[in-house]
Specification:
This protein is α/β, with parallel strands linked by helices. The chain is built from 4 helices and 6 strands.
């Protein structure tokens, strides 16, 4: 299945996570600014950070414009919040984007390559 991990990253955290996921599953990692011809992908994984409580404007604009083109889509969000706050944020973004398959990662840099981490367990589902 041809897969793209399309990301919006302001400070590099989401970029690093997207590239890591793409590498682990054999997908293309694409900055949302360069995301074209997305129809060629059978699966799209979107990734963005939270800034002042809101998802990346670039990702929001891209998703709302293109979501009818997505065949099989999921979403991950990198954020500082965990627990209920993180859950509320991902639920809000998931609803805004119309994507049910969504997950958030807090302190994601500490999860990369760590067996049993939320990130590694997510990658196993892809």
């Amino acid at each position: 299945m041809k897969t793209a991990v399309i990301y919006a990253s302001k400070f590099g955290n989401t970029k690093k996570t997207a590239e890591y996921i793409a590498n682990k599953i054999g997908a293309d990692a694409i900055n949302v600014k360069n995301a074209e011809n997305i129809e060629q992908y059978e699966r799209i994984i979107l990734g963005c950070g939270i800034y002042a409580g809101k998802p990346s404007k670039l990702m929001t604009d891209f998703t709302l414009k293109n979501r009818k083109k997505f065949k099989n889509v999921s979403l991950f969000v990198t954020c500082l919040f965990n627990g209920d706050k993180g859950t509320r944020q991902i639920e809000k973004i998931s609803e805004l984007y119309g994507i049910k398959d969504a997950i958030f990662f807090d302190r994601v840099k500490k999860q990369i390559g760590i067996d049993g981490s939320k990130l590694e367990e997510y990658i196993k589902t892809l």
